[in-house]
Design brief:
Order of helices and strands: EEHHEHHH
Strand order of the largest sheet: 2-1-3
Strand content: 15-25%
CATH topology: GIY-YIG endonuclease
Shape: globular
Number of helices: 5
Helix content: 25-40%
CATH architecture: 3-Layer(aba) Sandwich
Largest sheet: 3 strands, antiparallel
Number of domains: 1
Amino acid sequence: MAKGGWVYIMANRYRGATYVGVTSDLIRRVWQHRKGKGSMHVRDFDKTRLAYAERHEEIVPAIAREKLVKKWRREWKFALIEADNPDWLDLWDQWHPAGEAPNGDVQR
């Protein structure tokens, strides 16, 4: 059975700098970014806000979509985010209880 995937966009602020990524485990990957253990680019530019996430049943289409979105103009990425998240809220806060790591440990 193939494992699905997620295309996601991290941002540093409303309509700010973005990072497009792909992963099979969104919660774990976002947690890594938020703790400075994901992409060095995300860490260096403080892109810790999960602004957008898109689920795919298969990882291969998710990878193709990530490559496509990465090439998009900045305004197109903003439009994608704002179609589902017009206020650029941090989706992490909606999906995961404050202060908990993906495995249920308390944030340190």
